[in-house]
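Class, look over these structure tokens:
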Amino acid sequence: MSAQVWPPIPHDQLIKEEEDSLAAELEWLLADLQGALASLKSGLEECLALLNVQEPGTTLALSTLRSETVKGFVTRVGTRIIKGSDVAVLQDISLRISSLAPPRGQQSYPLHITSPLPLPQLSALLNLLDQTLDIIDISTWTGDPKNGSFISGQLRLLAETIDEAKTVMKGGEDVVGGKWWEDDFAGDETVRPNPPFSYPHVMHLEMSYTVCRTLSLSLISRPRIKNILIETPKIFTPPLPPTLSPHLTLTPTSLLLTIRTLHPIPQTSTPKNSPSTPNASSSSNTTTVTGLSLRTRLTQILAPMPAPTHDEADRVVVYRGQEVRVREKVRVESQDPSLMAVGAKLSAVGHAVEGWRYKLGIVMGEEMGEE
């Protein structure tokens, strides 16, 4: 099908009329897009409101089906997991795992959440959603809303940011907070060096030039800055043993708790005997450096380790400075209505952005490609 102009006009004038028509259509499309951006911004703000749940928060049950392997609940407030508000509840989560010995006088191992447990994956998701709002604000107020090339670039950046947010929601080891072996719930004092002092840090003090110069020279002339002790708050009570790893992550629709019991790989130490003490204790050559109590080590020796049936059986990782294998693995999911709504809204916003990119690409003659 072809379009012709009657009466016929010169070819140069026909090309000019086509360009003017495309320019008018582009101007109309960009004006219509501004109303759509306001709607997209409203949807993204609703996603932020669903994730930034304030107190008392959202209480989620974490229990295995038809068993008492994992039984309990957690409360999510924003990007943190906090302890339950009901003072009558003595424990948040209880574990009954064959490879995890409970404390004396108890039938299950309790996990009390005494300090807020951060969710880095959720924090990264909120950061990406904030970036999408900034992109829309720049497209509406800061930049030129009548510039097709500028708006096209902003829509592409918005689509990429939304796709990255959806990837973070899917979880996995490639996202922030996905590597469980990097969790540190020890709550011990750790020695960390002071950050290096530099001239921009001095200028940030907003002092006069003379005071800044005097302060910087005095700090540079200091031979050494001592290390400081930073105490990490204990999240779980009692403190977690080195053979237990609870890990909380997100899925597109739920909060996922993965409980792993670990089996340390023995590391033999070979101390050097001096010539003056040739009869040093030979038992020291086979001492395992695991950091476990005598009761736990005897249990591992006397009780045979059953064949693992999970997907991490042949994997060796370094957890708290010790090479370990996963002995048992239990996964429990709890459906979070807020996450379900956020996932649906993000998908809808992403489809809308792709639709506007396609329309704008047709008018501007851009090739979208296979994205």
